[in-house]
Amino acid sequence: MGHDLSQDAEIWDDAYKLDRAHVFHSWHAQRNLDPTEVVTGHGVWLKYGDGREMLDFTSQQVNVNIGYQHPKVIEGIKKQAELLCTVGPDYANLARGRAASLVARRAPEGFDKVFFTNAGADANENAMRAARLFTGRDKILSSYRCYHGNTGAAISATGDWRRKPNDYSRGHVHFFTPYLYRSEFSATTQEEECERALAHLEHVIQFEGPDTIAAVLLESVPGTAGIIIPPKDYFKGVREITKKYSILMITDEVMAGFGRTGFWFALDDYDYTPDIISFAKGCNSGYVPAGGVIMSDPVAHRFDDIVFPGGLTYSGHPLAMGAIVATQEAMEEEHRQRLHHRQGRARPAAHRSVRQAPEDRRGSRQGRVLGRGNGCRPHHQGAAGRRHDEADRGRRRQARPDSRRAQQPHPRHSSLRHLRRRGDPGRRDPRPGADRGRLLIG
Asked: What residues contact 123, with CB distance under 8 A and at least 6 apart?
């Protein structure tokens, strides 16, 4: 059985040739693909097969929130591997329970149940499934400028070009969200854009029939569609409309969650609470594939006495859960250290907004980059674009003995030391869940 691949023995240590011989890549025509070999990473740096070090401005798929090879996360995975590498989702497991507790802690009040998936796409799949089963309706409304994953319903919910060759799932309707730069509503101000976008959404709901719509699905910050920051009041308006017509609201936090925008979840910055939250990526910085759905109590309790007809072999996989626990604990620890370090300052940076670009931002921080695409920028590159060898890099470090790289060959792994608590530390935010650690990256 099988076929002869004895020639592979000759290239067994050549990652590039093995890749081109046997790996089928996503989102690419295969013939002329020229992938770059990555050997290892440290903090915000990647080391390529030719020895170059590259500063990863986009955190790979906008998911390595805590940086590469964080020692605490690696240790957490090792400990879990030594204890139990895998177990089915039907069993109780301490790593899974702890991971669910830590994820739920980030969500608003009234979100206590977490269904684990393997990534963001199947998180959105199951979020839509839960909404349809809860309401008994079929349609899902989502934006044209969005991306929700490349599985059946998730890609149909996606609005951009990737939907078109994959659009086989039923019951999906798209609408325009506010984007003043390319306004669909002839608006001249953000206020006009927001108001008209909300009126447009309500009209779509009325024409589609509210009694046919299960949920409105929106990214808190559209990511690969263009990093489009919604107007401040848009989500509150959407929430009012969905409540008016008894439609559920699903917030896709796959890309924006876990500190990426400066809050544990980006929805915290918009003063509203959805019915369902999907997540992935930053929950464990992509070290082991993981994602999930956080259900509000009414949605979760709908399935107390009826079966939720969805499941995954690797739902809550122990290694992924160990990585979530280690990542969340490391984030919390570094956030506490950050707050402690800033105590006693006359005007702490906590009073500044992420959009104000404070003067003390030095260098690029991986957790601060929302990132578009997968490009990396070279660490050392001359004016003419030539690559510098190791000796040249050594001379550069000697010439600048006080430089950050000279003092610290591998920068600290996590950008979470740049997370800041928003608002006056002496005032309590009255919003539900506000005391669960709202963060702002500075």
From this structure: 117, 149, 254, 278, 279, 280, 291, 292, 293
288: three-class secondary structure by DSSP: coil
Cα distance between residue 253 and residue 124, in whole Å: 10
What type of residue is 348? P
Q: What is the mean pLDDT of the chain?
A: 82
Q: Note the pTM of the prediction, 2 decimals.
A: 0.79
Sign for the pseudo-dihedral over CA of 371, 375, 380, 381: negative
Which positions ≥6 away from 168 have C-beta within 8 Å?
152, 156
Give the full edge-to-edge strand order of the sheet including 45-48.
38-42, 45-48, 53-55, 377-378
Tokens 């002869």, located at residue: 4
Which sign does the torsion angle of CA 234, 236, 240, 243 carry?
positive
> What is the Cα–Cα distance from 333 to 337, expressed in whole angstroms?
6
Pairing state between β 377-378 and 419-420:
unpaired
Cα separation, 84 vs 309, whole angstroms = 27
Tally Cβ neighbours within 10 Å of residue 172. Answer: 20
Distance of CA 363 to the CA centre of its chain: 22
Record the tokens describing residue 114, joined without a space. Answer: 């977490």
Which residue shows structure tokens 């890549």?
A: 25
DSSP code string of 256-279: TTTTTTSSSSGGGGTT---SEEEE
CA distance 196 to 179: 11
Secondary structure, 3-state, 189-221: CHHHHHHHHHHHHHHHHHHHCHHHEEEEEEECC
Question: Which residues of 194-256 form beta strands (DSSP E)?
Answer: 213-219, 248-252
Say if CB 360 and CB 420 are below 8 A apart.
no
Q: Give me the sign of the Cα torsion angle 354, 259, 331, 361.
A: negative
* Poorest-pLDDT segment among 67-81, 88-102, 355-369, 380-394: 355-369
Q: Tell me the per-residue pLDDT of 145-183, one tens digit each, with 9 for 90 and over.
A: 999 999 999 999 999 888 999 999 999 999 999 999 999
